[in-house]
Write a structure and sequence with these properties.
Strand content: 15-25%
Order of helices and strands: HEHEHHEEH
Number of helices: 5
InterPro entries: Arsenical-R_ArsD
Protein name: Arsenite efflux transporter metallochaperone ArsD
Structural class: alpha+beta
Largest sheet: 4 strands, mixed
Number of strands: 4
Distance between the termini: 13 Å
């Protein structure tokens, strides 16, 4: 587990494709990847209470995509197919799919 100073400064961001709602957990067929992501986010919030975790949908928060120059460039060059993009403290750590919990925790630990 990260120490208190790391917990307050760690920021995990998910830059996501258009979905039916902010979580993607509604509709007639729920995407299991989004269910797992939601579970992983809840686990991370419990383990790292100071961590900031944000999800941005390109159709609802397009300016957030511009605020991260790497994310903006990736979307500009590769289109929405590159989504989802995950960034940890502004650094892109995964594109085209969500990282699993173990992968995310390794990146948080700096491994």
């Amino acid at each position: 587990m990260a120490n208190a100073s790391e917990e307050t400064t760690t920021r995990l961001e998910f830059f996501e494709p258009p979905m039916c709602c902010s979580t993607g957990l509604c509709g007639p067929s729920v995407d299991e990847k989004l269910v797992q992501l939601n579970t992983d986010i809840e686990t991370l919030r419990e383990k790292y209470p100071g961590m900031i975790i944000e999800r941005y949908m390109i159709t609802q928060q397009p300016l957030k995509f511009r605020e991260n120059p790497v994310v903006y460039q990736l979307v500009k060059e590769k289109g929405k197919e590159v989504l989802p993009i995950t960034a940890l403290n502004g650094e892109v750590i995964k594109t085209n799919q969500y990282p699993d919990l173990a992968e995310t925790e390794k990146r948080i630990a700096g491994v």
